[in-house]
Amino acid sequence: MSSWETLFPQVVGILPPPFSTLLLPWSDTGDISAVLRLRFSNTPPEWGFLKRVYEGNFGKAKEELKHIEDEELRDYTRRVLDFALSGDITVLKGFEGSAPLKALLQLLIPGEVMGVELEDRPDLTALSHFMKAKYIRKVDPSEAMRHLDTSLRYISFESPVFKANVLLMKANLLYNEKGASYHLIQLYSEILTLLKDTNATLIKGEVLYQLGNLHFTFGNTDEAVKNFTEALEYFSIEEEPYMYAMINNNMGLAYLSTQPTGMESQVRLALGVQSLRKALEVFSKENYPKEWASATLNYANALVYLPTADPKKNLLKALELYKEVLSFREEMDDKEGVARVLANMGNALAHLGIIGEARKYLERARDIFIGLGLGEEASGVEEILREIRSVEVSGDGR
């Protein structure tokens, strides 16, 4: 029996693909329970390559392969690492080792993954269904869900990070396909519990981010802000800029969702603006145009209501930002997006007292919403127009 086969459960599924297929050789000094939780203190030399992969030091990981005595496993592991570094699928082919290792390599080949059969070990069977779900989740979510449920049925062994990865993909699929639900809050919370005693930092951060989004959807803004704040402990602007910006953007929206009626809500508004500014440090028009447009629109909306000694200055700045976003969305032929910017521009102009111009923007926004069949949005704009008409009748507008 090969050295890796004597170890159960294996470390499959605890790292993202292609590293999810890596295997450890048997060691009489290594603590597999710790490694399954991504804890690598006192790691024996023959497991050193996995520690280096976890650290992101792939060159050093290849050097550590010299400590693996099993030639077949060493060749297999080198192929996985070479593929990770090069993206060249040919390095996965031509392997002359055992059938299970060949099948694991096939899980990394798009044209072969769905035909892989790994039924002899529950850990490898669970991985194969997880990888199949990952491969087809965008084109066939229902089939992906079936593979995930099958994977979970095989995970009766202790591998908390692997199980969390399977549950996270399932939760994200449910969120994308069916929208927010209290069941999802329970599911994401279950994943957090699984990860409590692990070093799976990025997974924890993603789960907290999703919990924040769910709590915000259901109006629990305090809990949402708490989740987003905790998520930022795992995503820095240096190492994970995109997630850092997304979390700040959504946290900004959570802060801004309350009307500034008292001192506390005014502080929340200021914190919301601060969060959006942080998001825009990453979301530039050049690198992330769609995200930039969304975050800039949110930032401009916040400026309209931000308490300040010089509200006119903020309103003019907001109008300047609206114009930039409007130009971008017109270029993208995003009619709904254009209408939303026009509505916000009209609102800002109304705050400036430029009623006639405000009415023109709002009427244009309303007409686009009607043309798109967005009745609720059109009604919201019409309500502002009624207020403007009453001001014009009283002679206060210009």
Structure commentary:
The chain is mainly α and 398 residues long. The chain has a domain at 334-398. The chain has 18 helices and no strands. Helix 10 packs parallel to helix 12 (241-256), helix 12 (241-256) packs antiparallel against helix 13 (263-282) and helix 12 runs parallel beside helix 14. The radius of gyration is 27 Å and the shape is elongated. It starts with 31 loop residues before the first helix and ends with a helix. The mean pLDDT is 95.
**Main sheet overview:** none
Approximate strand percentage = under 5%
**Low-confidence parts:** none
Note the overall shape.
elongated
Question: How far apart lie the N and C ends?
Answer: 87 Å
- Secondary structure: helix percent: 55-70%
SSE-based structural type:
mainly alpha
Task: Provide keyphrases for this structure.
mainly alpha, elongated, 398 residues
SSE layout and pairings?
Layout: H1 32-35, H2 48-55, H3 58-64, H4 71-86, H5 99-106, H6 122-136, H7 141-154, H8 160-178, H9 182-194, H10 201-217, H11 221-231, H12 241-256, H13 263-282, H14 289-305, H15 311-331, H16 335-352, H17 355-371, H18 375-394
In short:
The chain contains 18 helices and no strands. The protein has helices at 32-35, 48-55, 58-64, 71-86, 99-106, 122-136, 141-154, 160-178, 182-194, 201-217, 221-231, 241-256, 263-282, 289-305, 311-331, 335-352, 355-371, 375-394.
